[in-house]
Write a structure and sequence with these properties.
The complex is a heterodimer of chains A (426) and B (142).
Chain A (H helix, E strand, L loop, with lengths): L7 H6 L7 E2 L2 E2 L1 E2 L10 H14 L9 H21 L7 E4 L2 H16 L5 E5 L8 H10 L2 E5 L9 H7 L4 E7 L11 H10 L3 E5 L11 H4 L3 E5 L10 E5 L1 H6 L10 E4 L4 E3 L13 H17 L1 H21 L22 E4 L8 E6 L4 H10 L2 E2 L1 E3 L4 H7 L4 E5 L6 H16 L1
Parallel strand pairs in A: 3-15, 5-6, 5-7, 7-8, 8-9
Antiparallel strand pairs in A: 1-2, 4-10, 9-10, 11-12, 13-14, 14-17, 16-17
Chain B lengths: L4 H13 L5 H14 L13 E2 L6 E8 L2 E8 L2 H14 L4 H6 L4 H4 L13 H19 L1
Antiparallel strand pairs in B: 1-2, 2-3
Helix pairs in contact in B: 1-3, 2-3, 3-6
Classes of the chains: A alpha/beta (426), B alpha+beta (142).
């Protein structure tokens, strides 16, 4: 399928939630970095699973159990192909990115980190890729180091190199910033980390719906994924890890499924991935997740990306156009601090970005902006986006963030811009 | 004698009925109300009197004169400030007893019930609790 064949109207028809009014206005959903909406195929798969296929997996001899087990493992094969993992067993089902990161911090970290070792993160991490590392570092006497950024929201790679040393054991890095949209140069980050013998965990929460994912080419050691940001159900995620690492890691939780044999004297653990999947998993949502991945595969990532990038550029130009008053031609840099002359300030102006744009409006709190937009049926995210250290670095207490998915349109951006224009003039 | 808390709430609801549930107009009106709230003296706008929320914060200062509780308040967000001004209108100048016995029913009626309940997102919910706490404290002083 080439770009011209992507038909947004027919894509939108697959998302029943989009066709409603909010506060009397047609819904404009620009909060996709928080969670994406679900296509009918995902909703149908959930419904079908509970209507005809529900059974506990990997255990019983009966037909329903065989059917649900097969469908569950089918999702594993689909995600394996989606990220080009060498083996399906390297893909562990979790609750989401947060749990995926916690597993690595609590099992790999507990076994391999020692006092004086160093863990490197970036200034733009989500709290879920800060706190798990803070906790394990504190427990182990390891040291957490942070890669700084420039004002555009790009990592200072020279500073990263200075932080690297034989003491570095882990680089835990967000692939795409949820607050700024910045795409980090992860290939280079991984190569440099490996050159000092460190492992790399990528937080892929925001990246996987927009970018091509190939864990073998990237050579990342771990990748954390959330289904609900990939048009799939909430409560499902994936931890990808290289086989030798997953095998060396102790189990995370204990219970059913993760065991090989249990006696009161001793328990031996199951093989990966089951070693990390204690208890009955979220079977229905995992099965429906496959349909979300199919939806993305059918459209093609490149087509999705091209459409979203077009929206992003349209949005940026439209927002900046709101600054173009008579005073505008004074040669003031476009990405200056917001002022009465330049009421819109874009936050996050990296060269490499996905379709996420944060901004602030001069003299208006982001909370008020969010409420006013909602009154017009427009859903955006406001606040610190669970990235308080990043907001501190930028000298902000929050932003307004618009983030796009494949079903968004330029017409929606026009509605959004009209609403923002009204606030600027207020 | 202070106007009854129920009567004040009813007249607020009446004012908001003019907007016929148009959320945008309601919010613009709230922001205007916020602007009319008497400025809070800077010496009371301190960390001590802050009521924190995840997105918006509220300052709340109280005093107790002749058996009545008086409130000064402010917020860093305009919509919250508008709601805060309504709370001041309703509760400032009332007796601790009347404040403690009152139910806030106007918030839901003006379509702003989302502003209450989620303490994390909003200093407004915490403010309601804080006002009642002050009233209770002054009551025990009597």
């Amino acid at each position: 399928m080439n770009v011209a064949e992507i038909n947004i109207k027919s894509i939108r028809e697959k998302f029943p939630i989009l066709h409603q009014k909010v506060n009397g206005k047609p819904l404009v959903y620009f909060d996709n970095a928080a969670t994406t909406q679900k296509p009918q195929s995902v909703i149908d798969a959930l419904n079908k699973y509970y209507t005809t296929d529900n059974a506990n997996i990997h255990r019983a001899a009966h037909t329903l159990a065989a059917r649900s087990t097969e469908m569950f493992e089918d999702t594993r094969k689909t995600i394996q192909a989606f990220i080009n993992a060498k083996e399906a067993e390297e893909c562990i089902f979790t609750k989401g990115v947060t749990e995926s990161i916690n597993i690595v911090a609590q099992t790999w970290g507990r076994k391999f980190l020692q006092a004086g070792d160093e863990v490197i993160i970036t200034s733009m991490e989500h709290h879920s890729n800060i706190v798990p590392w803070q906790m394990i570092c504190e427990e182990k006497g390891a040291i957490l180091k942070v890669i700084p950024i420039n004002d555009a929201g790009e990592l200072l790679m020279d500073e990263y190199e200075k932080l690297l040393s034989p003491k570095t054991k882990m680089v835990a890095c967000v692939w795409v910033s949820n607050a700024l949209g910045t795409i980090n140069p992860v290939k280079e980050i991984i190569e440099k980390a490996h050159s000092v013998g460190a492992k790399v965990l990528l937080d892929g929460a925001q990246a996987c719906s927009h970018l091509d994912v190939d864990v073998q080419t990237l050579d990342c050691d771990f990748l954390a994924i959330s289904s609900h940001k990939l048009y799939g159900p909430t409560g499902v995620g994936v931890l990808y890890g290289k086989r030798e690492l997953l095998e060396a890691m102790p189990p995370y939780q204990s219970g059913g499924e993760m065991i090989k044999e249990v006696s009161f004297e001793r328990t031996t653990y199951n093989e990966i991935p089951y070693k990390f999947e204690a208890g009955t998993p979220n079977i229905g949502d995992v099965i429906a997740f496959k349909h979300a991945l199919d939806f993305i595969n059918d459209l093609g990532k490149e087509n999705i990306r091209n459409h979203e990038n077009e929206l992003l550029h349209y949005l940026i130009n439209s927002l900046l156009a709101l600054n173009e008053t008579d005073v505008m031609s004074s040669g003031v840099e476009t990405h200056n601090y917001a002022s009465p002359q330049q009421p819109i300030k874009l936050i996050g102006t990296a060269k490499e970005k996905v379709s996420v744009q944060s901004f602030i409006i001069e003299g208006m709190h982001h909370f008020d902006v969010g409420m006013m937009l909602d009154a017009r049926g427009i859903a955006v995210r406001t606040g610190h986006h669970c990235t308080q250290p990043l907001m501190n670095r930028l000298g902000l207490d929050g932003t307004v963030r618009a983030s796009f998915s494949v079903y968004n349109t330029k017409e929606e951006i026009d509605v959004f811009i009209e609403a923002v224009r009204k606030l600027v003039k207020k | 004698m202070a106007k009854k808390i129920t009567d004040i709430q009813n007249s607020i609801i009446e004012n908001f009925e003019l907007f016929e549930d148009d959320m945008e107009s309601i919010l613009f009106y709230l922001m205007d109300l916020g602007k009319k709230l008497p400025a809070m003296p800077e010496e009371h706008k301190t960390e001590e009197f802050i009521v924190k929320g995840c997105q918006s914060k509220v300052w709340l200062y109280s005093s107790f004169v002749d058996g009545k509780v008086f409130f000064e308040a402010d917020s860093n967000t305009e919509i919250t400030k508008g709601l805060v001004s309504l709370l001041v209108e309703i509760w400032s100048g009332q007796t601790p007893e009347d404040i403690l016995n009152s139910e806030l029913f106007f918030i839901e009626k003006i379509g702003m019930s989302r502003m209450v309940g989620s303490q994390r997102s909003n200093g407004f919910t915490s403010m309601i609790k804080q006002i009642k706490m002050y009233a209770l404290a002054y009551k025990t002083k009597l």
